Amino acid sequence: MKHTFGICWIWILLLSAVEGNCTEIRVRPGVNSLRMAIGRATAGDTLLIQAGLYREHDLTIDKKLTLIGAGYPHIDGENRYQLLLVTADGVSISGLQLQHVGKASLTDMAGIKVIGAKNVTISNNHFFNNTFGVYLQNASQCRVVKNLIHCDISDEVNGGNGIHAWKSDHLTIERNTISGQRDGIYFEFVTESYIRGNRSFRNARYGLHFMFSHHDTYTQNVFQDNGAGVAVMYSKGVIMRDNLFLHNWGDSSYGLLLKEITDSYIEHNRFVKNTIGLHMESTTRVEVKRNLFQENGWAARVQASCSGSDFTANNFIGNSFDVATNGTMMLNTFNRNYWDKYDGYDLNRNQVGDVPYYPVSVYSVITEKIPVTMILYHSLLSDIMDQVEKVMPTVIPDKLRDNEPLMKKITL
Amino acid sequence: MKKLLSIIKTALFFALLAGCKPGFEPVNYGHDSCTHCRMTIVDMHFSAELLTSKGRAYKFDDFGCLLKYLKDEHIHDPGMKIYVADFDHPGGAFLDARRAVFIRNENLHSPMNGNLAAYTDKTAATHAGTEIKLLTLPDLE
Description:
The complex is a heterodimer of chains A (about 400) and B (about 140). Chain A has about 400 residues and is mostly beta strands. In chain A, the strands form two sheets. Chain A has a 26-stranded mixed β-sheet that branches. In chain A, helix 2 links the parallel strand 2 (about 25) and strand 3 (about 45-50). The longest helix of chain A has 12 residues, at about 380-390. Chain B has about 140 residues and is an alpha+beta fold. Chain B has four helices and seven strands. Chain B has helices at about 1-20, 65-70, 120-125, 135-140, and strands at about 50, 55-60, 80-85, 95, 100-105, 115-120, 135. In chain B, the strands form two sheets. Chain B has a four-stranded antiparallel β-sheet with strand order 2-1-3-4. At the A-B interface, strand 26 of A face helix 1 of B.
């Protein structure tokens, strides 16, 4: 494009005022056309960005603007720069394609970075091959809705996160599709926020990752084929409801990893085909209710460091091991779950089994101590051990039992 | 197929065990998990490794995790070696933590908020930025 500055100005048409002094500014591709349009606009204006390629970067939006892309205009960072930096409250950005953001060792470069602003809405954008897609820093009451975030750079280890939030609060992250990043969504020091209806798949590390983030809720999300599904760590008051943890498979992969979590709820989720469905370590008072654990290697791994948690009304179907633990102490309770491996009886026909069910099999205790013994799983020897243990329990923690196992599957 | 693979892996494991010498074990980024916090190690800038005198390697995603692990597990092993990733050369050779120079800065955003970057020496560390207080391993312990 060899247009002169003068020609650029022709493209930036100032239309008549719509309401008060709000103006719509039409932006066409050209040398620095976006930067100039942002510079000229006043608070409350709308920029209508026309389709095309904009090689512009480090665009700071420091007044309340609405950016609307028509036909997904491409804003390109040439694998060297970051793109939009929002520092003003009330900014709205939609319909853009933000691509090829660069990488730096000290700054986290992002397609859209919000720094210390409130009420920013980022919706219906495409983010392709960026280090970080959306980066929220000291942001409050921002909404990230219906964006498509994807990175297909094979060097996944060096990538950044799809949606990254740091020291923020009251965020809404809704109906985004995220793949190929390091973590799909990453919350660090984020409080009282909602994550709803997102699809996060094939990310290098986690689909969703919480660190030191309290009183957040995530519901109706799908986490599939990630390095590991979701990790919730060092947080309290997290509500996890109606999510699907599907096929997070690998050496030590899991659907959901909890580490040092207190007072949280895991309700009505489905854990299907994960190496470990739910892994709990040093957790306190976590309610695990009405979940489905189906066809996992280990449905739940509850380390002896956990206490005060309660497993109630869950379905355990077709898992290789239902529950595993690494000690003989068990300070958590299991009540009224359905276990497909339960072979007890129900003489009084009250739908509750008359003998308790011990969900920890001998073999899971042994493999917990000596992982390589896994190669003997389902061998004659291990089957004999299982039978012997049923008659004379010695190895498995005595307290880890369901006194009222249900005879029928719970309809969830 | 998976089973076969795990059998081969186990066989290899025993084969290696026979001729095992204590030595640095490279970190398999994206697969190995941190001994302390359980997270998958992905960030090449901050990873660390503890090698006991018996030759057992423990890997960490953050130098802060390694320090916490030493403290929590009360490890007193005078023969142990501590390695830390060189911040300037991610993915390259690890440094001996006892000789490295550290910088602590919140803006580093290390995986577990240890926020410690290690450098080969003082000059490398001072090149890194401003307002920096240089630290060595005894300062951190």
